[in-house]
Design a protein that fits this description.
By secondary structure, this protein is α/β, with parallel strands linked by helices. The protein contains 16 helices and 13 strands. It has a 6-stranded parallel beta sheet, with helices on both faces. The chain has a 3-stranded antiparallel beta sheet with strand order 9-10-11, covered by helices on one side. A two-stranded antiparallel ribbon has the order 3-4. Strand 3 and strand 4 form a beta hairpin. Helix 1 packs across helix 8 and helix 8 crosses helix 9.
Length: about 375
C-alpha cells in the first residue's frame, strides 16, 4: 500500500533556517511535495549544531525528504536563480524577519508581484508585519508557558525539545497544504504563522482561556499535573516513574494500595489544595518497589503510569515494541527520523536530509533535483 501523497507534483521552495520552517517543508515532503531547500553558501546554520559522526542531529531531524541548493541571496546572479526556482514553484516557506524579507525582496508583496500564484508561508515571531525576532525559548517565555511549566519553587522553566518550533512548523505545513489543495483559494495568498500565537494555543491552551475568562492562572508545580493530584514523578527503588492518579476514578483505585498513608478520602479539589501530602503518600509506596513493579501494578489496576526513561532507553524500548518507529537505518548506519503516523500500517518513506550543497553557478533547477 502507498501512503497518501496529495501534494505529488507540487513544488515548494524552503527558504527557512533552523527548525520551524524546516518542519513545515519536511511534512509537505512527507505528503508528496517536491521540496527544495535553499541554503546559504556555508549551509543552513543548523548544520553546525551538535550531532554525531553523521552530522548535526538538528539538521538531520527536520530536513528529510528534501533536495538542496546553495545560493547567496545577496548576489544578483544567485538572486536571479532563486527567481527561476520560484517561477516553477507552488509555495515558498520563510522564517526570515520582516526587515530581511524586505531587503531581499522576499516579502509577500514583492513575491506576488513577480509570482502572483505563489503561496507565501511566513513563520513569524509576533506577526509577519512585526520586525521583532523570536526563538523557541523566547516564545515559551513570552507566551506564559514558562510560568505554567515552573519548578516547584516557582522559578519559570523552559521545556526542552523546541515545542514551539515544532508546533509552528506543523501549523505552517497544515495551512500550506490546505491552501495548495484549495482550488478556490484567494489570489496572492500570504500565510502568517506567528510563534507567539502558536505557543499560546498549543502550549498554554486552557490557561489562555482562564486568563481571558477570569484574568487568572495557575503557576507550574514542577512535574505535577496542573489539573489533578496526585499525579507526579515518584522515586522508586531503582529509578523514577510517573503515576497519573489524580482523576477520581484513578485515585479510588490507588488509595487502598497506599494504606494509612493515604489518610481519609478527599475530593479532587482537596487533593489539589494539599498536593504535597498526597504525593508523599504515593512516594512512600513507590519507594518500596522497583520501577517495573510499580508500572506492572498500575497496569493491573488500570492507573496510567510509565517509567522515566532517558532518550537511549526510550529509543530501545519503543523500537522493540513498534518495529519501524522513531528511526530507520541507512546502509551506512545513519539514523533517519520516521514519520510518527502510519496509514494501515504503512508510513511515508523518508529520505535522509540532503548533504551540504556546494555553492556553484549551475542551473538550480537541475542542481536541486
Amino acid at each position: 500500500m502507498s501512503t497518501p501523497q496529495p501534494l505529488r507534483g507540487r513544488r515548494v521552495i524552503d527558504l527557512s533556517q533552523y527548525i520551524a520552517g524546516a518542519v513545515c517543508g519536511q511534512v509537505l515532503a512527507d505528503y508528496g511535495a517536491d521540496v527544495v531547500k535553499v541554503e546559504p553558501p556555508g549551509g543552513d546554520p543548523s548544520r553546525e549544531l551538535a550531532g554525531s559522526r553523521f552530522g548535526s542531529s538538528y539538521f538531520r531531524a527536520y530536513n528529510t525528504g528534501k533536495s538542496s541548493v546553495a545560493l547567496d541571496l545577496r548576489d544578483p546572479a544567485d538572486r536571479l536563480r532563486l527567481d527561476e526556482l520560484l517561477a516553477g514553484a507552488d509555495a515558498v516557506v520563510l522564517n526570515f524577519g520582516r526587515r530581511t524579507r524586505e531587503r531581499l525582496r522576499l516579502d509577500a508583496a514583492s513575491l506576488h508581484a513577480q509570482h502572483p500564484g505563489l503561496v507565501v508561508t511566513v513563520v513569524s515571531a509576533y506577526g509577519a508585519d512585526d520586525p521583532r525576532t523570536c526563538f523557541d525559548s523566547i516564545a515559551q517565555a513570552v507566551s506564559g508557558f514558562a510560568v505554567l511549566n515552573a519548578d516547584e519553587d516557582g522559578r519559570p522553566s523552559i521545556a526542552a525539545g523546541y515545542p514551539t518550533d515544532v508546533f509552528s512548523g506543523l501549523h505552517a505545513a497544515t495551512a500550506t497544504a490546505m491552501a495548495l489543495l484549495d482550488q478556490q483559494r484567494a489570489p496572492a495568498l500570504e500565510i502568517d504563522v506567528p510563534m507567539i500565537e502558536v505557543a499560546m494555543a498549543s502550549l498554554a491552551g486552557p490557561a489562555s482561556l482562564l486568563a481571558a475568562d477570569d484574568a487568572a492562572f495557575t503557576a507550574g508545580q514542577g512535574n505535577r499535573d496542573a489539573a489533578t493530584a496526585p499525579s507526579n514523578v515518584y522515586s522508586c527503588r531503582d529509578g523514577f516513574c510517573y503515576v497519573y492518579a489524580g482523576l477520581d476514578k484513578h485515585w479510588a483505585l490507588l488509595r487502598p494500595l497506599l494504606g494509612t498513608a493515604a489518610g481519609p478520602d478527599a475530593t479532587a479539589r482537596q487533593r489539589l489544595a494539599d498536593r504535597a501530602r498526597f504525593d508523599a503518600a504515593v512516594e512512600d509506596w513507590t519507594l518500596r518497589h522497583t520501577v517495573a513493579e510499580v508500572c506492572e501494578r498500575m497496569q493491573e489496576l488500570g492507573i496510567p503510569a510509565g517509567p522515566v526513561r532517558d532518550p537511549v532507553g526510550a529509543l530501545t524500548a519503543t523500537t522493540a515494541e513498534r518495529p519501524g518507529a522513531v528511526v530507520a537505518r541507512e546502509a551506512g548506519g545513519e539514523a533517519v527520523p520516521q514519520y510518527p503516523v502510519s496509514f494501515s500500517g504503512h508510513r511515508p518513506r523518508r529520505r535522509p536530509a540532503p548533504a551540504r550543497p556546494e555553492h556553484a553557478t549551475a542551473n538550480p533547477k537541475e542542481t536541486a533535483r
